[in-house]
Amino acid sequence: MEDRTERGRTQENGRSDGAAGKQRSSPCASLKMFLVALSFAYFAKALSGSYMKSTITQLERRFDIPSYLIGVIDGSFEIGNLLVIAFVSYFGAKLHRPKIIAVGCVLMSIGTFIIALPHFIIGRYEFETSARRIVNSTLNVSPCAVGSSADLTQGGCEGESNLSMWIYVLLGNVLRGIGETPVQPLGISYIDDFTTEENAALYVGCVQTISVVGPVFGYLLGSLCAKIYVDIGFVKMETITITPADARWVGAWWLGYLIAGVITLLSAIPFWFLPRSLPMSGPRGPEKCTPEQKSFMKHKYPADEHASFTEMAKDFFPTLRTLLGHPVYLTYLCVTIIQLNSLIGMVTYKPKYIEQHFRQSASKANFLMGVINIPAVALGMFSGGLLMKRLKLNIMGAARFAFGTSLIGYVLSLFFFAMSCENAKVAGVTLSYNSVDRISYDKHPVFTACNSDCFCSASDWDPVCGENGITYVSPCLAGCTDSAGSGKNTVFSNCSCVGVAGNFTASTGQCPHKDDCDRMFPYFLALSVITSFIISLGGTPGYMLLIRCIKPQLKSLALGFHTLATRTLAGIPAPIYFGAIIDSTCLKWGQKRCGGIGACRIYNTTSYRIAYLGLTLSLRTISFIICIPGFILLSRQLKKEEENAINKALANGGTELEALRKEEFIISNSDQMSDNSTDRETRL
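That's the Solute carrier organic anion transporter family member sequence above. Prediction below.
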């Protein structure tokens, strides 16, 4: 009977312990769920953000806009952040953080769908071609038009207003920016509040690594969509005369935004089921957490559950003033703003640089960015977090590590200047019709004796490759009089500018001329991977420096204001002025149907390289100069903190010593009193 009773008690205790165990394990289980949910949200936002970068050239061509305007569209994401981030970071830290992140993910998804909307409103894409301007053309048109020049300019302007549909892309990107706002500051501060200091760096490193994996899929999605023609399913592909390598090709840019929107919407779901905050201490503490986690959670501060909105608003500006009065934080802010100007400008136009400089298709450029470059960054960021934990780097150690990796990457980046490709040979643009052997960037006339009998348009861009290996701006300007075949297989004959006899042919599209580029391109990719890995090694230590150099109470606001400042002063302007500088290297602009400049068709690759790389490295040089006073200020702060800690310890030690003396005095007095009483008893 006793055995049964004991067994029953054991079972009951087992059940109660199991139930308590489940209850107790919930904080750590919730933390793990939050880590998974935040990683997926980071993945979704990174995927849609990188997909936007991969569609830059597609959007330029589809809406016939220059690079600086694409920079405005790209920067509109940061404008969305700017509108709400300071308030979301400050008030969000005091409210239900997971649910605010969930609302943000839903807004991001809606914004992504709005970006794709113009495709379903705008008409079919009509690329620039000389053939379409010839009136009463037949299947085998004569490229050399005879008659008045007025015949060449006929063609309706209907649908031109549709090109302003790029404003929908801009507005959708603004909404994406608003939605993305709470994910980083609230997510990182939530992790840091409920993990040990030792594990915080590793967890942040893991989340940021996942956020770098997102762009791998973003660029791969961009590569896939760039291969598919924009109006796939609505046009006969055999009638399309251009290929993905053509400067007029537009891929199915809208398709990727629909996919990214669905993924972002799914990422919002887990956050609705997460708690506002996790228990810090007490008997209901997490059983499955390690002793270190339990002890650390006791020192963490919970969100202010009962603070009123008025009280929070009243404290906002004094708190912000305290934050901006922190010299180390302010210096760190300046350095990261300048470095991010360099980084954002470089990453935004890197696929375009690969396309233009090394003559790769948009699809291949995006594929290489996704498969080779981005994984190197992910590996670097994860390795940086791991090294920080293994080496147990303090604040100064993290700062030195981040600076060292950035400096090594900077030195290696100088070698990019030596990796050059010869410009494409285009008659009338980079070559003179009279001297087709030497490339020069002087103004060359496109009209010459060989095409004087044809009424050609100087503004058209419909390149053909002559048998002599020279590209001509259009079949008309090549002096071609006949054509045979259709679509990509069209062949132009009797091209008087191609050969002296006038019986040479030309085919659609630019001439390849890729020998020198093909030799140089693998070296460019290898160096790009190495520099990306080394620079990203310092990413996580640099980020932890931001978290650790300020008081815990200011952490959420510091992260939020850092994001606000970097996006306002780097994310918005960098794509615009990088785009404007790239535009200045354009040699041949496309023309809109009703006049006006469209997208650039061919660049001066030497000027492009110097402008793009020169601007990137100049900004990083300035950031290194600012780092010098930054290290001095950080050293002073750490020294001051150490002195304060010693003084506090001495003060505490003095108080303890005084308490001990009092205790000894009381004990000695009580001993004396007991001795006296014993003496009295003896006498009696």
